[in-house]
Design goal:
The protein is mainly α. It has 2 domains: 9-60 and 99-189, no CATH class; 61-98. Helices cover 72% and strands 0% of the residues. The chain contains 7 helices and no strands. α1 (9-24) packs across α2 (28-59), α1 packs across α5 (110-126) and α3 packs antiparallel against α4. The longest helix is centred in the N-terminal third of the chain and has 32 residues, at 28-59. The model is unreliable at 181-190 (pLDDT under 50).
């Protein structure tokens, strides 16, 4: 059909959706769900790496706070040599844990893809795409119409809130501390 004719994330998503729809012969709602699942699976390793990195930092937060305190003292004394030593010791500590401070930003890689998915659905609902009027399911049979019960935004909001809750620092700390306890228990059993 040639729907996506650009180099923006929404065009990539349209091309991927069209490829999935044509090659699998799924209805449009199934193709949208499959493309979303494919993107989630493809981005999962990046998000897992970012979450693991954050949990490493949270597990060692007490030590990190001490080094940050030393760095703040060095900055307040305006002694360049002390500041360089404090920064160096902080990054040495990070290296010993396997923590990379800038790896937390890798989670932002998902933004253009899922913004592209949103734009793709908006663009395709305005285009004369064959089958979008009847390609839905359940209460949203017409993909070109607005959701009459606003269930899709509610479902999206609930799943986003659940993802944020699961990725809260307190919950990551619980997960990382329980897994490290298991590792320590396994080492003592041997």
């Amino acid at each position: 059909m040639g729907l996506g004719l650009g180099y923006w994330p929404s065009s990539w998503c349209i091309n991927l959706l069209e490829l999935v729809h044509v090659s699998t012969q799924l209805p449009w709602w199934g193709s949208i769900a499959l493309v979303t699942l494919m993107l989630r699976v493809a981005l999962f390793p990046f998000l897992l790496k970012s979450s693991r990195n954050t949990s490493i930092y949270l597990y060692h937060k007490a030590e990190a706070d001490k080094t940050k305190e030393k760095l703040a003292k060095a900055k307040s004394s305006k002694n360049q040599m002390e500041m360089k030593l404090a920064i160096s010791s902080q990054f040495d500590l990070y290296r010993s844990w396997g923590y990379k401070p800038f790896l937390g930003f890798i989670g932002f890689i998902q933004i253009p893809f899922f913004f592209g998915m949103f734009r793709m659905c908006s663009l395709c609902s305005g285009l004369p795409v064959p089958g979008w009027e009847t390609g839905g399911t359940l209460w949203f049979t017409d993909l070109t119409a607005v959701d009459p019960f606003y269930m899709l935004p509610v479902i999206s909001g609930v799943t986003t809130a659940a993802t944020i809750y699961v990725c809260l620092p307190e919950n990551m700390l619980l997960i990382s501390s329980s897994s490290s306890r298991r590792v320590q228990l396994n080492r003592t059993e041997r």
